[in-house]
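To: structure subgroup
Subject: Chain for Friday's discussion

All,

I'm putting the inputs and outputs inline so they're searchable in the archive.
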Amino acid sequence: MKEKLIEILKNSLKPSSLPFVLYRNEEEKALIDAVFNAEIFREEKTSASAVLQKTEDAVVKKQNISVLSTPAENKSDDSMSLKEYISHCRICGDFTDKKYPSGSNQSKLMIILNAPMLMSTFEKKQYREQSIEMMKNIIEKGIGIELKNIYITNIIKCEADSLMSKPSTMFKNCEKIIKREIKEQNPSVVLVMGDMLPLRPILRTSETIQWYNIDHPITILKHSDLKRKAWNTIVEMKKYMEELV
């Protein structure tokens, strides 16, 4: 990739303009964007040879960064801890925060959170403490299980830095992590808090798991009329779990 890009620039680059370059996939697009967005292309008097040398350096730097961006290329998924994989992943681009799972699978119950769409990072942080308290009340009072004994994870593993990031694309990138979590935790029951539509393909292949769905705690906080519906689902889930014992 590096050699081809440099060759293209040698053949078509002028100090005052940029070449039109096609790319085959998102990885190549990100690489080319990184090169063309470099400060050296905003210097009108930079010589072509100097630009080419700096461009090659920029490509090498980008390639070195991409080693961290796609950890699975260097280590197999099985050889990496889940936290390590999530920590190093950069597939979706820039992010403001990483979301790691918490709790344990002692109860054989797994909670998957899918945050409400069209909500800013600021608003999510504003409701964070309240939503945790709401979830604690729903689970601990409704089922009688402490949160620390439940494996809790997020459907999307990072908070995107840009509002332009599509949740559907981000979930596609996180889907294999969710599948791995389900395989490793082997829950008997999964409670999805939030829209469970993205999980439908996984649901169809998880016949041994009983799935339940309520609104996300933030949504319930903003719309108190949803509490009754959520509570009824929790009562039903508790009854099922008691039958498993």
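Points worth raising on Friday:
The two ends are 57 Å apart (CA to CA).
The beta strands are 95-98, 109-113, 151-154, 158-160, 189-193, 210-214.

D.
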